[in-house]
Write a structure and sequence with these properties.
heterodimer, A: about 180 residues, alpha+beta, 5-stranded antiparallel β-sheet, 5 strands, B: mainly beta, Porin, 12 strands, about 60% strand
């Protein structure tokens, strides 16, 4: 089979490789997000690595795959909790934070990094406020108790899934008494 | 080469620190639509190369503007052009002889796409797409030919592994009405019918795409196409399959696809060496580069 295509067909992908910057849009650092969601609270990191059995239990309870077994969790002096997590956007990870009160109810969600073409509306405070008060066992389903964001369906679905997974993680592993 | 350098410069200019969208594949289409009020500008170049004898290289160019009328309905308009270099190959009824020309405007297309189910929210994506295309250059021979086509596609899409793996499936139908212009200096006994012809093409395609690194997708896609004509019944069929590489940024994306013909049948030209392919209206291989810019 003859394959006499011009080499210049490879020029554009090569250009993309060279030109594509790895820079991201960072709205909050971890420290800023902690102060935003748990203002004035001293936070202490809690080391949690999920066992395979725990990860399986979380997946079964939430219906969401556990991609990273090493959790990023902090405990606040007032008994609250701060989780740092990532979910997949269309092309890159979306970094977000979840804050819970001492009873395991959501007190806030904040977006730290978002790099997608569309769907920046997930940063909208009204959309994020839908999660406030949710606890483990809440449906947390798009088009059910969480409104879908038009034009940001994938991002809003994955953040909703992520919160559902973290609430299951909190209730089953990190603070199982709640 | 100059055009490619220009496109490369444009790619650099738009390489803002940000990221991504659509068209993971070169040929098969996904079921998603642009959000309400969003727009996308596409540049597409497709090289059709090698008919198994002589020299044949045709390149199709397309500039398309797509607009999100609503979150579920997009409209688009495209201008088309082509260039051709063929020599040492005569196919009775199709290729009257050597021909070479650079970029020439060849046609236009308008289309609409309606999303019924969203792959991320509904678990399965489903969309309908319809288009109307008119061209005045025969894309095979480069001769004058008025062609009007209407096509209709059903587009399906499914996410796996949190959308890290994407499957798409397409089925479609295209109805074509065409009429060739007469040629003055045809070879002796060369058949070049100028009466109107009607053709129906059926298409099916599928592809899987995997995000192997942030912003980068590797894909495999396959296409089956067959065409029926009143006089000859099934005129041709072919199976193409090949890989794609996709890079998605926040403001722009690029997809490069190589699509060789694996099997084909139907009409063949006199003396065709490889009888396992259809090489009259198709070539041994195609390569497509798509660039998209989001607004």
């Amino acid at each position: 089979m003859r394959r006499d295509f011009h080499v210049h067909w490879l020029l554009l992908p090569a250009t993309a490789l060279v030109a594509a910057p790895a820079a991201a849009t960072t709205y909050f650092t971890v420290e800023q997000a902690q102060q935003q969601l748990l203002p004035g609270q001293a936070l202490a990191p809690v080391a949690v690595t999920l066992t395979p059995a725990q990860a399986e239990a979380i997946e079964k309870a939430s219906g969401v795959r556990v991609r990273d077994k090493t959790l990023k969790v902090w405990r606040a002096a007032n008994g609250g909790w701060f989780y740092l997590d990532q979910v997949l956007g269309k092309h890159e990870f979306i970094t977000y934070a979840l804050a819970l009160d001492a009873q395991g109810a959501v007190t806030g969600v904040e977006i730290l990094d978002y790099r997608e073409t569309y769907g920046g509306a997930v940063r909208n405070p009204k959309w994020r406020a839908q999660f406030t008060g949710k606890k483990y066992g809440a449906p947390l389903k798009l088009d059910a108790d969480i409104v879908n964001l038009s034009g940001a369906t994938l991002s809003s679905a994955h953040i909703t899934d992520g919160v559902r997974r973290l609430l299951a993680t909190h209730a089953l592993v990190v603070a199982p008494t709640h | 080469m100059t055009r490619t350098l220009l496109l490369a410069a444009l790619a650099c200019a738009f390489a803002t620190p940000a990221f991504a969208d659509e068209n993971l594949f070169g040929y098969v289409r996904g079921a998603e639509t642009l959000p309400d009020g969003a727009a996308e500008l596409y540049f597409k170049a497709t090289e059709r190369n090698d008919k198994g004898a002589g020299t044949y290289r045709a390149t199709d160019y397309e500039v398309e503007y797509e607009y999100g009328v609503s979150d579920r309905f997009n409209i688009s308009g495209a201008l088309q052009a082509m260039s051709l270099d063929t020599s040492g190959l005569v196919i009775d009824g199709y290729l009257p002889g050597d021909r070479e020309f650079g970029l020439r405007a060849s046609g236009f297309e308008v289309s609409g796409k309606y999303n019924i189910l969203r792959p991320a929210a509904d678990g399965f994506g489903l969309a309908l797409r319809g288009g109307l295309e008119h061209s005045w250059i025969d894309k095979h021979s480069g001769q004058d030919k008025d062609t009007t086509s209407a096509d209709f596609d059903v587009l399906m899409q499914k996410y796996f592994l949190d959308a890290q793996l994407v499957w798409v499936g397409n089925v479609g139908l295209e109805a074509t009405y065409a009429k060739r212009k007469a040629i003055a200096d045809l070879p002796a006994d060369f058949d070049w019918p100028t009466n109107a012809e009607m053709e129906v093409e059926l298409k099916a395609g599928t592809g899987v795409s995997y995000r192997f690194a942030p912003n980068w997708y590797a894909s495999l896609e396959a296409l089956y196409e067959t065409e029926f004509e009143t006089d000859v019944g099934q005129e041709r069929w072919s199976v193409f399959a090949g890989p794609s590489l996709h890079y998605g940024g926040q403001r722009w994306w690029a997809t490069l696809t190589w699509l060789p013909q694996l099997r084909g049948g139907g009409e063949q030209y006199a003396g065709q060496a490889d009888t396992n392919l259809h090489l009259i209206e198709k070539t041994r291989q195609e390569a497509r580069l798509k660039l998209g810019f989001n607004f």
